[in-house]
Amino acid sequence: MRSGDARREILHAIRTNLESSPPVQSSPSPERRGGQGVRTPEGRGGQEVRIKRFTEQLAAVGAQCTTVRSETEAAAALARILADAGARRVVGSDAPLVQRILAAVGNDIVIDRLERLSRDELFACDAGVTTAQWGIADTGTLVLESARERSRLLSLVPPIHVAVLSVRCICESLGDALARLSVASPGRSPSGASHAITFITGPSRTSDIELTLVVGVHGPQTVHVLLMEEP
Amino acid sequence: MTFERDARTALADGQLRGALRQATTLFGERRRAALATVPDWEGARDRARAIKDETLEHLDRYLEEFAANAERAGACVHWARDAAAACDIIGGIAERRGARTVVKSKSMASEEIHLNAALARRGIEAVETDLGEYIVQLAGETPSHIVVPAIHKTKAQIAALFADKLGIAPSDDVATLAAAARDALRRRFAEADLGISGVNFAVAETGTILILENEGNARMTTSLPHTHVALMGIEKVIPRFADLDVFLQLLPRSGTGQVLTAYQSLITGTKRRAEDEGPEELHIVLLDNGRSRMLASRVTRQALACIRCGACLNACPVYRQIGGHAYGSVYPGPIGAVLSPQLFGLARSAALPYASSLCGACRDVCPVKIDIPALLLHLRAQVVAEGVAVGKGHLRERLAFWIYAAVMVRPRLFAWLMRAVRSLRIMPPLGAWTKWRDLRPLAPRSFREQWRAGLGDQRGPDA
Hints:
The complex is a heterodimer.
Chain A: H1 2-19, H2 47-60, E1 64-68, H3 71-85, E2 89-92, H4 96-103, E3 110-113, H5 119-123, E4 127-131, E5 134-136, E6 141-145, E7 160-166, E8 170-171, H6 174-180, E9 196-200, E10 205-206, E11 214-215, E12 222-228
Parallel strand pairs in A: 1-12, 2-3, 2-4, 4-7, 5-8, 7-12
Antiparallel strand pairs in A: 5-6, 6-9, 10-11
Helix pairs in contact in A: 3-4
Chain B: H1 2-11, H2 14-35, H3 41-57, H4 59-72, E1 76-80, H5 83-96, E2 101-104, H6 108-112, H7 115-121, E3 125-128, H8 131-138, H9 155-165, H10 174-191, E4 194-197, E5 201-203, E6 208-213, H11 217-223, E7 227-233, E8 237-238, H12 244-255, E9 263-267, E10 281-287, H13 298-301, H14 311-315, H15 319-322, H16 333-344, H17 361-365, H18 372-385, H19 393-408, H20 411-424, H21 431-434, H22 447-452
Parallel strand pairs in B: 1-10, 2-3, 2-4, 4-7, 5-8, 7-10
Antiparallel strand pairs in B: 5-6, 6-9
């Protein structure tokens, strides 16, 4: 097969060329590899410190945030967000929490489920509601995992993305979040692995025309986090 | 030489130089501010470089590990020796899927192999979806900056272009222009059969590819069509998933001065269950195209550590004046001046190693500490050794250095010549220098003469 030949040729070229230069003496020691050591969520400060940093960073990257204490409060906050934006068609992910919150939102709004939508209908939606599996305090980032929820398109296509995140899932740093992810490699974690993981830091943005910032070019213009405080 | 001619054209373009000055200055400032948020920037650079060095030292092993893990997760891995092979593979996939339109997110490697032209020859339309790339494609031009491809165009030019090609009312409001592009491209996303993306990092340990972006077009490209093709140079692989941490700290800060870009997509194979979202097929094309050759020397190998942030472009006093087009290569600026001759042949890019003042600003900002000035000197030596002609001054230059060397090792000859030059008031021809600068008049007595006459005995006030 031609592809197999190319593979052999490339690997051969790599080995031959590597052999023609002397090997390096100092290889990095294992503890210096990768990032800094992974800290526990309780790392530098307590949960309070992480929540404060997370919300500050969300504001810095242009995302909105509302703290809620129950699903009822979440539904009320969501209804307000949608009404303020004039959103009429809203789609929720398959996460049970999202379904419960959407069921409690008032009835002026057309609520749909992703699996019932055609691609054109999805493109016509005003808002997508999902959960986020992790938050990153250092950067104001949301982390969405495909194995946990169908959130890949709902967090991207509609102009408004509302994400529900539990305060208990806020990691301190990017390194902490990477250490918590289960990547879909069967050899490593056979079940519950995600083939698509998305890090979201604020709304979609571009500065491609005269370096002028425009928010919401292909992805959402608005990212709103409902930060759920749990007792 | 094309470089000299194109650089001159660029220098005469006041609008281009204004835009370049604005962009490179802004990115430089943002970068400096973003670095301040990392407690140990130097340590991060060292770590990243060590990871890249380790990977390159065992590139065969890590590539095989990556390919095996990606395939286990459901991806189909292809190996392409050169540009033609990569275009064939991707064209073949598109034809097999019956694709008439493909959407593309930004990929330097796809520019390198001239993929769009190759697809067009098969009757397949490739639509660039990054706003800057889209503008450049509509205008029938090429990108002038790695990070901001359309930096050379004003909003008035873009407004006229959109009015012509998209049929919108002329507007110089940037948000309106972006919205027009968004609408036009949404239709393309909805109908596209195939999405083509680049890859920023490929993790050997898990078979994961990672793509960074700000607009969301790469997410669209990699999640909406049935088939996703990811094109990557073989040097993009890194050993471990945890290694992503340090590279994600370095790349956005160095490139756009952001702490993190808006989106990172980490894709590991294809969807697991029927109800999962995302493409049914993922094809990963591993491109050599001259890269394995660069492993042969420790000096040239460094350039394979590049993570394509563009910081060296923004810092380079040459790039800041002439922009990307003058380099005549997909990869402009200091990193382009060292990559292009190695990837595309010295004969085609012999002028590029000389397109530098060797000031070292590129080396200072490089997040993986590539010693670009050393590489430039290495390539200059190669240009001379291989006798690749660089302009008509080449022979004259050799003669001049031969005479210089002969004079400098003979002190009496040197002194005599200096006296002759001073008394006759003649200067050797310095055309390139004196064309733009006035030569200072010669001192009536040389320093050595003044020294001998007692200059050395004069003491400063504090002696």
